[in-house]
Amino acid sequence: LDLRAWPSTTDPVASHVSSTFPEGVSNISLLRPLRALAFASHPDASPDGELALRVLDHFGPDGYGDRRTYNDDAYALLALRAVGFPSEDARIQATRSHLLAAQRDDGGWGWTLGAPSGTDLTGLVVEALAESGGVPDDNASRARGFLTTTRSDFGFAEMPGLTPNCESTVWAMRATDRLGGRPRDDDWWFLLSLQLPDGGFSHLPRGPSDLLCTSEATALLGDAHAGEIDGPAMGRSGIPAPSALLALAAVGGAATFWIRRP
Asked: Can you give the pTM of this predicted structure?
């Protein structure tokens, strides 16, 4: 899946998300493409581009979009920073304050007001805060504390006590990196073990290929290949392309054999 090809009238990720999480479709179909356009140096990827102006239309005193949801705020921060808005922008600062105030007592963030903390949104918020001025020390320490409660021997679950899955592992690894740590090799091997012969990644071990977790895992692997996040036992030099292919084919199959299953 070419993330830089978005948006399109037949965007499969937007279709999947809109049918599963109707409130999330605007984030997938507008904010993520805006970020992707910025990475691709698209002519519209500028502070005064059409998509940026569409995002800005939804800002208010309590941040972006619906004040009861927090994924829209996080994606808005990522989008505006990607097209060149400075961290000091008043709308970015208001959205940051809204997100920081939404951190729960256990150190994580929930998708909506009053919802329990989840690994996925915690990782997304940490990413957005890191990209828009950094994560304050106290908030970072509390976020690390929450992530330890969803971590298993291999991979991360969305909430404490649940089964580790693809997307939560991806977002927790991103958050770990953003909070000054290094993703564990065991988490990389768990993620690689979820790739199936058809090339897709499954949400859970032994499940079918899933479009959403495949796009999340592929984006993380791309960052590792570019040296933007530590790959397994390789440091900032990244994952060379041949090694990545071998890891996905050989290590992935081997890891599936010895990873502890729930």
From this structure: 0.78
